[in-house]
Amino acid sequence: MTAAHTTVEPARPLVPVLAVVGVGLIGGSFAAALRASGAVGKVLGVGRSATSLSTARELGIIDEVATLERAGREADLIFLATPVGAIAPMLAALKPCLRDSTLITDAGSTKADVVAAAREALGERIRQFIPGHPIAGAEKTGPEAADPALYRHRNVVLTPLPENSGGDKAALTKIWERCGAKVIVMEPEAHDAAMASVSHVPHFLSSVFMWQVATAQDSDLRMRLAGSGFRDFTRIAAGSPEVWRDIFLTNRPAILAELQEVKAALARAELALQDADGPDLQDFLERAALARRFWGSRSGLS
Amino acid sequence: MTAAHTTVEPARPLVPVLAVVGVGLIGGSFAAALRASGAVGKVLGVGRSATSLSTARELGIIDEVATLERAGREADLIFLATPVGAIAPMLAALKPCLRDSTLITDAGSTKADVVAAAREALGERIRQFIPGHPIAGAEKTGPEAADPALYRHRNVVLTPLPENSGGDKAALTKIWERCGAKVIVMEPEAHDAAMASVSHVPHFLSSVFMWQVATAQDSDLRMRLAGSGFRDFTRIAAGSPEVWRDIFLTNRPAILAELQEVKAALARAELALQDADGPDLQDFLERAALARRFWGSRSGLS
């Protein structure tokens, strides 16, 4: 990485050549954030959609469209912002053309599965890969949705491997901080369990609910009466089906385990409703409301 | 009602004296909207919290604090914006002091239960009560949250009774339209079934989920990693426990029936996840995403 260079030559950017694989919301916002903070020299864009790449170039998010091979040869940092299922094939394709000094990171929403696949794909070059997951997103997709402020004040989890060097870990932390993010270091499995709870299960439930309402016989009438509560509860269900299918498949055991917990809680609340038990209903509603209000005041997100 | 008067004396407001019972978000916003549109003369505020009433008066939402009895004697329109469980006792207390020309409506989130209780409480004066439900709200509560624009472009369901006069129904429709709302007329039971689906079940699920996360052993870590999806999915769980306890209790059969449908859909999606069935997962995610995006583009709410 180039952290050492920046102290010697201050004019040299933190990341002389950045390659972003997947120039949508996540990858495009990363490139835009680094460019806005003056941390990047040239940005190469890699992807399968010619339209997205062309839009990203028109918007100034990337400077040039490149192949994966060129990214491996030229980039100082490669940011993989593809669906989780595409990360391992990308790493396998990158391996033969990687320079020794190239650092790779990703934005995959699951980490244990990605780490296992990365070890297989990269072999001894696994030291060049630091797994990451920015906790940020929106229901919008594509390069048009890219926003240099997307990661500001957001958490980014890194799950470094024993093979990663201290210098690379420090450099990647600094890069994320230049995007305005706060870095949290965790084990991959702890990350996956926590994300199953606060991200994957809510998405699963929101999508199941939306699907159930949409397939009801009187769905038109129902949806006419849907208000702001429905809007908020179902917003995540509009997210990319492909991205979320991959997340569900790669974090399957943790999600299935967490769903059991949620169903047990649901059964308890349903029993209170069946029994028309007002105090019990109010008790669980109060605990939920207090916890949500406390979270809202601390998270800076609501 | 005063609809006839306004054509004869244009200087006379649509509602010369409005009484709002419950001066929080819903009642306060109704008063503020009518005042902003010049549709109201004097506003009386009725409630059990001296603090809320005093705040509402300081904010100019109400002109005077009044007893329920005075509201019954003086008001042309009484708007009941209390928790659903308090509507019947209010109507019973109002009955002995009601003028013949006073119209009463409510903002209760359930209607069949309210209609039954209103018939019992009002007897022959049931003709003066037109049940209503504005589909609007926010997680904030209290008179400070009152907003004259809360009902703009929102749907308001009225479930008129056979005893209501055509003149009264037209007058109440006009009043809601002055708040910027669109009036939909429905049967109480159809309203309750639709609301169970698109409002009550989402609130139940969001609260159950929030409660489950908050009571987990590692809830602190989980909540640090919670992002914008969590924020949206759990926003409604911050709502008033008392209000929602009453809604759940008064619309219990419809909610329990709808919960069975959601659980059946969940079981089907869970099976696809257990089987790691990518195409099946993607299929349900796609249907949900398309339906949500279509709703968002039509509803004007997202």
Automatic annotation (TrEMBL), chains A, B:
The chain crosses the membrane at residues 14-34. It comes from the Bacteria. Signal peptide: none annotated. SUPFAM superfamilies: 6-phosphogluconate dehydrogenase C-terminal domain-like, NAD(P)-binding Rossmann-fold domains. Gene3D superfamilies: 6-phosphogluconate dehydrogenase C-terminal like domain, NAD(P)-binding Rossmann-like Domain. GO terms for biological process: tyrosine biosynthetic process. Residues 16-302 form the Prephenate/arogenate dehydrogenase domain. Keywords: Membrane, Oxidoreductase, Transmembrane, Transmembrane helix. InterPro entries: 6-PGluconate_DH-like_C_sf (IPR008927), NAD(P)-bd_dom_sf (IPR036291), PDH_C (IPR046825), PDH_N (IPR046826), Preph/Arog_dehydrog (IPR050812), Prephen_DH (IPR003099). GO terms for molecular function: NAD+ binding; prephenate dehydrogenase (NAD+) activity; prephenate dehydrogenase (NADP+) activity. It holds the Pfam family PDH_C. PANTHER family: PREPHENATE DEHYDROGENASE (PTHR21363), PREPHENATE DEHYDROGENASE [NADP(+)] (PTHR21363:SF0). This is Prephenate dehydrogenase/arogenate dehydrogenase family protein.
